[in-house]
């Protein structure tokens, strides 16, 4: 029987506690934190993408919840009104942590079992955990048997942690919903834009996954992405992703977090062809600016007729995040041979997602013109005037909404 750690030895009232996101959540430590929450006073939790579902709204009796996103299990916290949002570019998180604007007092990690040299790795995520490692007063870790030993550093020995315990949780892989006809049509348009030798960034969601699935005939693709999942690994294993023609990190795929299931974990284990790096590398403009033929593929909630993009709020609910969309779109926009892509269905819930005016915040301004793709076609807004953009976007909206969008565009252009 494992001894239950007394977390009050490491946590003080008013502390901010951070941990990895999605599959990198240290579920054993989180469970102890919840069970012992009455022992150390009120604390704040900085959350990434929620997956394990252990946190409930009733835990707001002791926890304040803060996140950069409303994704995954964070949605129920947001809907209950207990989740506060930090609306920042993903690339800004390391500096905010380093400078203390986002103070991290306690870092809880999920690490891999040690390698043959006794070194633990950060396993499934690097991201913004690295500046937190440097600034946290206490670093608590659990060793999870299913976590791969991944390259990219830093590596640790037992003495580097203030607490190291066994982890006993394993996540079930997500049930992947079948691709819809709309997903496939959008993916087909996207795939037609991607040439051999491109370096890819793929966001999270059904459409980026569907687009990756249609690239089986390409050759010598590279990967430099915030997240890497099963779709990219399938291309890697098929010999489509080789990273051979990348302009930086030649022969190596770069990611910040592994969001795939067992297939991805198995591929990543002790694999030097894949390195996980911190956000200050994966999203840094000085790094991204050196990548030729960089294709950034992301989705969004809605796009207005001037080219502004909302990736955060739908129906008044915070569902997404600022994230890294603008970091990658800007990089692809200036890359030699690069393409900044935002792909989305033309409708959602019967409403057009090409809209006269955004219903939420401007996550990407119209000055960062990109290539918008729906199941009805492609609207490349680069170099286009406002009138030209409206016409292109209306042409790829759902036919049932084009007439109304045309009326709105005419009214806006002829006040």
Helix content: 25-40%
Please tell me what the overall shape is: globular
Number of helices: 13
Q: List segments where confidence is low: pLDDT < 50 over at least 5 consecutive residues.
A: none
Q: First CA to last CA: what distance? A: 74 Å
- What is the tally of beta strands? 24
Q: Give Rg in angstroms.
A: 22 Å
Report strand %: 15-25%
Mean pLDDT across the residues is 95
Structural class: alpha/beta
Strand order of the largest sheet: 4-3-2-1-5-6-7
Report on the architecture of this protein:
With 415 residues, this protein is of the alpha/beta class. Helices cover 26% and strands 20% of the residues. It has a seven-stranded parallel β-sheet with strand order 4-3-2-1-5-6-7, sandwiched between helices. Strands 9-8-14-19-23-24 form a six-stranded mixed β-sheet, with helices on both faces. Strands 16-15-22 form a three-stranded mixed β-sheet, with helices on one face. A hairpin with a 2-residue loop joins β20 and β21. α3 packs parallel to α4 (129-135), α5 crosses α6 and α6 packs parallel to α7. The radius of gyration is 22 Å and the shape is globular.
